[in-house]
Amino acid sequence: MTQSRRQPSSSRPVQTPSTNPLLPTPNRHRLTLPLLLLIALSLIPALVLAAGRIQFESAQKTVSVVMDYSALTAQANLNGLAPLDLLARYRKLGVNGVGVYEDTIATLENRAEIYKQPGTELALKYPGQGVNPRLTYMRDLDGGNAVARLRARFTIPFSTKVIGGVSWTVWPTDPSFLPAGPNTALIGELQKQGYVVVYRPYDSPVVKAPGTDWPNVPFLAFTDNQVIGARDPVLLEQIKGRLGARVPAIIEFTPQKGLDTLIEGKPGIRLFSISGAWQDLLTPADVSSKFVLAARERSHKLLYTRPFGTIQETETFLGSLQTGLDKWGIKIGTPVPAAYNPSALLRWLCILGPLAALLLIGLSYPLVRLGLIVSALGLLIALGLNGGQPFPGFALVAAISFPALGLVMRRSRASDWFVATGFSLVGVLFVSALGANRDSMLGLDPFKGVGLTLLAPICIVALSFLPRQDIRKTAYQIYSTPFKLGDVLVMLVVGLAVALIYLRRGNATGAGVSDAEAKVREALQDSIIRPRFKELLGHSVLLVGLSGVLPGYFSLMALLGGVVGQASMLNTFSHFHTPLIISFERVLIGLGAGLVFGYVLVYLVKLVLRLWQGRGDWMRDAKLDIN
User: Fold this and answer.
1) Burial of 204 per CB tally in 10 Å (0-12, 13-18, 19+)
2) Which of 4, 61, 261, 291 is deepest in the core (most CB within 10 A)?
């Protein structure tokens, strides 16, 4: 009996042929074109938001070069100079701000405003007058009233005792390091000379009303791992009210508990500094390079500097810093913090793009049900990692779906590299549109799921390799496939490479870089916008995998390795503190270099394989002789 040929119905997927015999044919579902159109339409609000963000960031290219006054004073004293005179010398090299710490009682003692004696010494000096050697005694000098101000400032139980004919205030502990308020005379003189002052208050539980005596300065930088009042919600709310127009600094790599609450609804400003201990290990050129990078690529507006061991080294550093800032069009002045607040309506419209991409991935799987399950899991995980919040959740959806979308739909020839890259570039606009806001651009709300952005696209593409058959049969075939020792070694190397890439994600990585690589990175970032190395390698490897020049499953492994380059592009744009135009330049440089290197690599692979195989006789006769 002749069996009639069934015509595909409109509800069944139409298959597009694949030229790679190891890969199943992707589906071309009847919803493919509508979903692509939906992605294109939702790209319009994403482009509008991108233009607005670029305009906002272009107006934020002013930084203040701030010198730590305590460190400056120490250097000036060692060289027999007045601190303000040395500061004026550095001002000619771009320093326009000063970081002033709150006074301590020890500071008042050094300035001869008070006289403090431990009880042990005072008892020896005035025997028999009832001096308690376990207490500390304090009095004013030169007819001042500093001690009265201190007594009014603290909750400490004081007493008064006349010793040697003089009235002393008795402290139950040594108060040397207690915060004593601002040096208003110094701050006033600095402001009179036109410096931008960053005030650095200390926290202490014995201060009665912290924040009420803060000077009228533009910026505050807290000195501990938590802001004043972080442990007391009532006090924190009072501190927030006492901020006034002062803008708190967000210090890079120094998370401070309570800072996000303190500046909720208020502006913040990013501050970059290098500890004195780390700076001592670097050259002035190295340090200036890091500060320029912070201003150029990490949106830091306060560059908090410290002098080097010598004045000459400090001047070399400041001169190099000023040259670097000028090169990239960054002005030195008084930064004016502004909050980036994108349109909520446009962001809601952008959500349709990642949602359509995720659905399109599922419908393009050879096993459609498996694809839809993978898409649903990706959606649930992305939203779950972000606490159900739609905007950051769908930013993560975009970051894991668009790097995989092009390779799930088309992966049979070298030209499909451009299709995959095109979808990834579309995805970066959605990541920016949905993930960039005030808190994420200030670094207060970092992108959640960075590791997932590297691993999930690889898994999504790998699962699309499963053939169109009973999945139990596929599992059995994989289980029954014999492996050679070479296969095991190759998979081990690939696994180690993926682990290394994962550990080195982000800015604070789990795996360091070698000195040689650090030098290369620094040289590149000083001259151009440095591309990410895993993008360069990933783009090249993907081109090799799509070209089909590698034998057997090596093409599939190269294709999966190339997904890292696509995923890394989306990962680049998840660093929202980096200006959008900088991220675009970094990605485009990586794409151009990766494409050129990829075609060279394809040629080299062909050449090596031709030389290796020769006539092929040795391959047929080769055996491992262990005798």
Assistant:
1) middle
2) 291
